[in-house]
C-alpha cells in the first residue's frame, strides 16, 4: 500500500520482526518431530515469544492503546477507543506438524470497528494489509474478491471441529448442503489466511463457528475492503462478538449464506 498510515506501518513492522523468529522456530520444529520430548511445548513457547515481540513493538509506540492477544491477559489501555487484536501464530497445529501454512494476524480496533489489518504469511512472503476506506492489498497488488457467479465453480473454506467440540453435527450438516453444489471445500487450518484468500479471490467464501476475535479481526477487514460481504450465522450478529462468520464474494453471497444457515 503506497499511502499506509503510521499505525499500519507499525503493524507491518511488528509482523515482520516476529516472523523472522517464527521462521527459525518452524525450521527447528521439523527437527523436533523425531525427538523424544515432542514439539508441543516448543511451539507453545514460540507462540508466546511472538506475541511478546509484537506487543513490545506496538505498545512502545502506542502505549495508551489496549491489547488483546491469544497468549496473555488483555491489557486495558488508557485510550478506551483503540485496541490491538493479535494472533501471533494462526495455524499453530500446522506449525506443529511442519505444514507451511500459518500466519501472523494483527488488527487495530477503533470504537468497536476494525480500521487497519495485517495478515502476514512469512513462508510465502505474502503480506495482506488493509485500512478502512483504502482497499485491501497483498504486497503491492490490489485485492478483489472473486467474480464467479456459478455455484458449481466455487470453492469454499471452513474449519472442521476437532477434539470433541460440540459443533461437529452442525458442521457435518453444513457440508451436506454445500458440497453437492460447489467445486470443493478446503480446510487449511488458518482462519486468518482463509479470510485473506477470500479477499484475494482464491476462495469464493468462508464460514466457521467457534472462532476468537484474534482469529478473524484482521481478515474481516480484508474481505470488506476487497469488496466482499460479511455477516454472522444469525443475520445482523457481529462475528467478533459471536465467533461465527459467513464471508463471500457478493455475486454468490446470498446463495452461500442461505446454504450455511440451512434456509
Structural class: alpha+beta
SSE succession: HHEEHEEEEEEHEHEHEHEH
Q: How many β strands by DSSP?
A: 12
How would you write the strand order of the largest sheet?
1-2-3-4-5-6-7
* Mean pLDDT across residues: 93
Q: What percent of the residues sit in helical stretches (DSSP H or I)?
A: 25-40%
Number of helices: 8
State the shape.
globular
Alpha carbon gyration radius: 18 Å
- Number of structural domains: 2
- pLDDT below 50 for ≥5 consecutive residues: which ranges? none
CATH architectural group of the largest domain? 2-Layer Sandwich
CATH topology of the largest domain: Fructose-1,6-Bisphosphatase, Chain A, domain 1
Structural summary, described in words:
By secondary structure, the chain is α+β, with helices and mostly antiparallel strands. The protein folds into two domains: 6-142, Fructose-1,6-Bisphosphatase, subunit A, domain 1 (Fructose-1,6-Bisphosphatase, Chain A, domain 1, 2-Layer Sandwich), CATH 3.30.540.10; 151-261, D-Maltodextrin-Binding Protein, domain 2. The chain contains eight helices and twelve strands. It has helices at residues 6-32, 40-61, 92-96, 168-178, 191-199, 213-225, 239-242, 250-261, and strands at 66-69, 82-90, 103-110, 113-121, 126-131, 136-138, 141-142, 155-158, 184-186, 205-208, 229-231, 245-248. The strands form two sheets. A seven-stranded mixed β-sheet has the order 1-2-3-4-5-6-7, with helices on both faces. Strands 9-8-10-12-11 form a five-stranded mixed β-sheet, sandwiched between helices. Helix 1 (6-32) runs antiparallel to helix 2 (40-61). The termini are far apart. The model has no long low-confidence stretch (mean pLDDT 93).
Amino acid at each position: 500500500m503506497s499511502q499506509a498510515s503510521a499505525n499500519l506501518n507499525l503493524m507491518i513492522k511488528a509482523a515482520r520482526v516476529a516472523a523472522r523468529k517464527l521462521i527459525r522456530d518452524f525450521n527447528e520444529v521439523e527437527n523436533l518431530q523425531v525427538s523424544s520430548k515432542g514439539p508441543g511445548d516448543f511451539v507453545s513457547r514460540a507462540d508466546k515469544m511472538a506475541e511478546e515481540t509484537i506487543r513490545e513493538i506496538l505498545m512502545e509506540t502506542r502505549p495508551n492503546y489496549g491489547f488483546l492477544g491469544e497468549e496473555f491477559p488483555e491489557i486495558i489501555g488508557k485510550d478506551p477507543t483503540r485496541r490491538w487484536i493479535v494472533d501471533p501464530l494462526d495455524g499453530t497445529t500446522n506449525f506443529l506438524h511442519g505444514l507451511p501454512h500459518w500466519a501472523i494476524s494483527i488488527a487495530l480496533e477503533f470504537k468497536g470497528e476494525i480500521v487497519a489489518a495485517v495478515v502476514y504469511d512469512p513462508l510465502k512472503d505474502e503480506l495482506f494489509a488493509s485500512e478502512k476506506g483504502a482497499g485491501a492489498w497483498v504486497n503491492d497488488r490490489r485485492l478483489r474478491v472473486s467474480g464467479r457467479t456459478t455455484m458449481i465453480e466455487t470453492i469454499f473454506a471452513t474449519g472442521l471441529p476437532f477434539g470433541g467440540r460440540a459443533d461437529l453435527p452442525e458442521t457435518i450438516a453444513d457440508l451436506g448442503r454445500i458440497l453437492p453444489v460447489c467445486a470443493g471445500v478446503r480446510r487449511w487450518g488458518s482462519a486468518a489466511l482463509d479470510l485473506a484468500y477470500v479477499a484475494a479471490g482464491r476462495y469464493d467464501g468462508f464460514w466457521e463457528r467457534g472462532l476468537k476475535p484474534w482469529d478473524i479481526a484482521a481478515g474481516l477487514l480484508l474481505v470488506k475492503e476487497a469488496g466482499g460481504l460479511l455477516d454472522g450465522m444469525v443475520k445482523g450478529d457481529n462475528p467478533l462478538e459471536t465467533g461465527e462468520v459467513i464471508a463471500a464474494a457478493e455475486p454468490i453471497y446470498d446463495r452461500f449464506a442461505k446454504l450455511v444457515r440451512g434456509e
